Structures are given as C-alpha cells and as structure tokens.
C-alpha cells in the first residue's frame, strides 16, 4: 500500500520504564513481578524492507519460547505504518483480534527511543487487566533490525 501521514504513526514525546531483575532480587527486595520474560531475540534483515523484520523475529522468539502463534494471547506490534502491521499479521497468520488491542502506534504514538518499552509496558498491563497469560511484543528498528520478547503475566 501507499504510506501517507494518515496511515503512519506520528512522532511523539513519551516515556516508559521497565524494571528487570532476577527472581532472587525480586524476593530479596520484596517486589511483586508483573510478568516473567520467557524468551527474547533480535534479528536482522535487508534494511530496504526493515519494516518486515518482526516477521523473522517473532518466528525466532516463539521457537525459543517453545510457543506457537495460536498459544499467544496478545501481540503488541510497533505499528510504525499500517501496511507494516498488516503484512506481519498476514504473513504470520496472527488473529487480528489479538494484535494491538488498545490501538497501535498510529493511535497511541511512536515515541522514538521509548517505543520498545512503551509496547512492552502496554502488553504487560493489558495481560494483567484482562486476565490473559501469554504475550509477545515486537518492533522493527532502522537498519533492518527486529526485536521481540515473549512474556507471561504473573
């Protein structure tokens, strides 16, 4: 499709924070975890099609987690462009009802530098709020990189 201002995410200010620690430290500090990291990965593809990097990355992180597409309750994809998210959903045959259930970056914004943390925080809080268990967050990065993480709500 054609990429326009109407189907692309805006550049926004924003912030998100993720606190990551071991179970031992969480117990020592009496912290109540929101989620557990099951697997994560990064991959690279041809920079000319960098928006498609999450396809390869999601396949790899699900393999590492020993999960299937259908076993994931929610997906949070950084939606830099509507066409990008549609391509990922179609290629991986993800149920669209499981993707960006609060809206993606076109609706919520794309705070460059904080987008990865933003989508992970959104995913974890949505899992907790809905009582669902498994989530996968993924994004493309300029230069052809893709990042993905699988988490389980605690």
What labels would you give this structure?
single chain, 4-stranded mixed beta sheet, alpha+beta, Peroxisomal Thiolase, Chain A, domain 1
List the helices and strands and how they pair.
Blueprint: H1 23-28, E1 35-44, H2 53-65, E2 74-77, H3 82-92, H4 105-108, H5 115-130, E3 134-141, E4 145-153
Parallel strand pairs: 2-3
Antiparallel strand pairs: 1-4, 3-4
**Nearest-integer average pLDDT:** 91
Distance between the termini: 39 Å
Helix content: 25-40%
Gross morphology: globular
Instruction: Extract low-pLDDT stretches.
Output: none
CATH architecture: 3-Layer(aba) Sandwich
CATH class: Alpha Beta
Count of individual domains: 1
**What share of residues are in beta strands?**
15-25%
Secondary-structure element sequence? HEHEHHHEE
Query: Would you count the extended β strands for me?
Result: 4
Q: How large, in whole angstroms, is the Cα Rg?
A: 15 Å
Largest sheet: 4 strands, mixed
CATH topology assignment: Peroxisomal Thiolase, Chain A, domain 1
CATH superfamily: Thiolase/Chalcone synthase
The total count of helices amounts to: 5
How are the strands of the largest sheet arranged? 1-4-3-2
User: Helix- and strand-based class?
Assistant: alpha+beta
């Amino acid at each position: 499709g054609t990429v326009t201002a109407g189907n692309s995410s805006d550049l926004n200010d924003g912030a998100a924070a993720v606190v990551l620690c071991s179970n031992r430290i969480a117990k020592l500090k009496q912290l109540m975890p929101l989620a557990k990291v099951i697997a994560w990965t990064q991959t690279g593809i041809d920079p000319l099609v960098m928006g498609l990097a999450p396809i390869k990355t999601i396949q790899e992180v699900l393999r590492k987690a020993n999960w299937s597409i259908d076993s994931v309750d929610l997906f949070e994809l950084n939606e830099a462009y509507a066409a990008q998210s549609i391509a990922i959903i179609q290629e991986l045959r993800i149920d669209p009802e499981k993707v960006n259930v609060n809206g993606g970056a076109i609706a919520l914004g794309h705070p460059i530098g904080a987008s990865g943390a933003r989508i992970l925080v959104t995913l974890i809080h949505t899992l907790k709020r809905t009582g669902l268990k498994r989530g996968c967050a993924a994004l493309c990065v300029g230069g052809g990189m893709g990042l993905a993480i699988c988490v389980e709500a605690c």
